[in-house]
Amino acid sequence: MIAGLALIAVAGVVLTVVLLRRRYLVVTVEGESMLPSYLPGERVLVRRTPPDSLRAGQVVVLSGFAHAPPGKRPKDPGVSGRSAIDLSLSPRWIIKRVTAVPGDPIPRDTVPALRTAPGTRVPAGRLVVLGDNPDRSHDSRLAGYMTADRLFGVVLRKLG
């Protein structure tokens, strides 16, 4: 009887850990793109969040520019058998601040890559994200829209 209860308790703990790991992620900030808000080496707690719940001003974690969106397979190998894009050159995750979400006006003044974008509003499935340190950030200023399927979640807080 006691062994059965202990087994159920262990299974409950394991299930809880598995569920928490699917919903939360701890990311260590690398680089200077989010200075002065986030310092290199700081760790942040991120909660998986659907793109339709984002709003401007939130800090988010997305898959890197050269990486497949969360839950999707990486790009097919190139003709030489090597990856078409050297994934080691790009961070797995990037941290940026949301500037505009679908339906918001396109921020043409602050995002040069979108100055000639068609329409007046950010289209569905797209995000405009910027680093807090424009001199050290590769973001929508250079790359234009980010696809919303690259979103992992919203930064909840810094960890000690």
The number of E-state strands comes to: 7
The main sheet orders its strands as: 1-2-7-3-4-5-6
The string of secondary-structure elements, in order, is HEEEEEHEE
Average pLDDT, all residues: 86
Distance between the termini: 41 Å
Total number of helices: 2
- Class from secondary-structure proportions: alpha+beta
Tertiary shape = elongated
Main beta sheet: strand number and arrangement? 7 strands, antiparallel
| Uncertain spans | 76-88
Q: Indicate the radius of gyration in whole angstroms.
A: 19 Å
β content, as a range? 25-35%
Helix content: 10-25%
Properties at a glance:
LexA/Signal_pep-like_sf, 160 residues, alpha+beta, 7 strands, S26 family signal peptidase, Pept_S26A_signal_pept_1, Peptidase_S26, 7-stranded antiparallel beta sheet
Describe the structure.
The chain is α+β, with helices and mostly antiparallel strands. The chain is built from 2 helices and 7 strands; from the N terminus they run H-E-E-E-E-E-H-E-E. It has a 7-stranded antiparallel β-sheet with strand order 1-2-7-3-4-5-6. The longest helix is centred in the N-terminal third of the chain and has 22 residues. The chain is elongated, with a radius of gyration of 19 Å. About 8% of the residues have low confidence. Pfam families: Peptidase_S26. It is a single-pass type II membrane protein. Belongs to the peptidase S26 family. This is S26 family signal peptidase. It is found in: Cell membrane.
